[in-house]
Every structure is written in C-alpha cells, then in structure tokens.
C-alpha cells in the first residue's frame, strides 16, 4: 500500500452521514452473525448479506465521489504535473480494485 500525504477533505456533516451508514452496516453484519448462530434460513441470511454489501458499497461510492470532487479536482486544477500523474494512477488503482469487488 502506498502512503501519500493527505489532507482531510470530509466535512463534519459528511463524517456524520458516513458514520451513520457504517453503523447501519455494522448492525446488518451483527444481524447476519445472529442469524447464523440461530440457524436461520439460508436465503434470509443471503438477503441480509446482500443488504450489508450494498450499504457498504454505498459508503465506498460516497468516499470516492468526495475524493474526486476534492483531492483529485485540486490536483488537476492547481497541482504540479507529478501530483496530477499520482492522482490519476491512484484512481486507476482504485477503479481496478473496485471493479474486482463488484464482478
């Protein structure tokens, strides 16, 4: 994993919204765990897993959109060429990883 200098770009409102969504995902995963412990019907477990996966994917989408609108936009508008190249490479890596998750 490559570590880059980062600037916090999430507003307090964004953080609250993301934390709310993540708490919901945690609740869904805990529900799956209970369902497994209680020998719930497999289809019901799979439906709950699907909901948790979708909710977590939405968190990732929000973070990616924020990254594009802030960090990447700033690098493209005013950053040196090396910063722009770095952000583009970062995006390509993210898209490759994200695509493998949703395949």
UniProtKB/TrEMBL annotation:
Top-level taxon in the UniProt lineage: Bacteria
Gene Ontology BP annotations: negative regulation of DNA-templated transcription
GO molecular function: DNA binding; metal ion binding
UniProt cross-references to Gene3D superfamilies, sorted A to Z: Metal-sensitive repressor, helix protomer (1.20.58.1000)
Family: Belongs to the FrmR/RcnR family.
Name assigned to this protein: Copper-sensing transcriptional repressor CsoR
Organism of derivation: Allorhodopirellula heiligendammensis
UniProt lineage: Bacteria, Pseudomonadati, Planctomycetota, Planctomycetia, Pirellulales
Gene name of this polypeptide: csoR
């Amino acid at each position: 994993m490559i570590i880059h200098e980062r600037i916090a770009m999430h507003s307090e409102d964004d953080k609250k919204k993301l934390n709310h969504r993540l708490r919901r995902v945690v609740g869904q995963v805990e529900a799956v765990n209970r369902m497994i412990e209680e020998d719930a019907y497999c289809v019901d477990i799979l439906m709950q897993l699907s909901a948790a996966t979708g909710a977590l994917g939405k968190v990732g989408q929000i973070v990616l959109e924020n990254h594009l609108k802030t960090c990447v936009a700033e690098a493209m508008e005013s950053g040196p060429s090396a910063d722009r190249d770095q952000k583009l490479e970062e995006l390509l890596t993210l898209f490759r990883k994200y695509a493998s998750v949703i395949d």
